[in-house]
Amino acid sequence: MKRWLWLLLTVMGLSGCGYNDFQKLDEQSKAAWSEVLNQYQRRADLVPNIVATVKGEANFEQETLTKVIEARAKATSIQVTPETLNDPAAMQKFQSAQGELGSALSRLMVVVEQYPNLKANQGFSDLRVQLEGTENRITVARNRYIQAIQEYNVLARSFPTNLTAMVFSYQPKAGFTVANEAQISAPPVVDFNKK
After folding, report:
1. What does the pLDDT look like over 56-74, one tens digit per residue?
2. For the chain, which domains are there?
3. pTM for this structure?
4. In sequence order, which ranges of the chain are alpha helices (DSSP H)?
């Protein structure tokens, strides 16, 4: 009789410990991260087509193109798997590389504004629309990942599930950080008098 009572208490205790919630939220965070990677890959796949189209413009600034190509190479060389999501240094390195690619592409799009022939090119226009859509998808995927990580981290830090987290070594997961936080916190300068 004591054995059945102990077993019943153990099962009841485990049902409220959050173990299954950790499993569910861990899988959700991995799936959300996979979608982030998918969108980053989509962006990286667009870059060669954009570069090839822009190269067709004879007097286009080679330095800008080189920076885009180098940033793409760096961004695609760094792989963060779901298992390394808990490594803040690996996440920071990955985010930094993706930020560099995003910045290089933004600079490219600004420079393109100075080339009317390129702006009028239908192929480039289509690629630009795809890139803008991809950037929006990246934002949505990152937001979903941030939300999944937040739910997981709340579970890992809340009582009594934090006890389960300690027993099974569930550490809070690293989220996205902004590499240039000071830079983006400054308001943009808008000058309508510039041509």
Report:
1. 765 667 788 888 889 989 8
2. 40-141 (1.20.1440.20)
3. 0.74
4. 2-15, 19-55, 62-77, 88-112, 116-120, 122-157, 161-167, 181-185
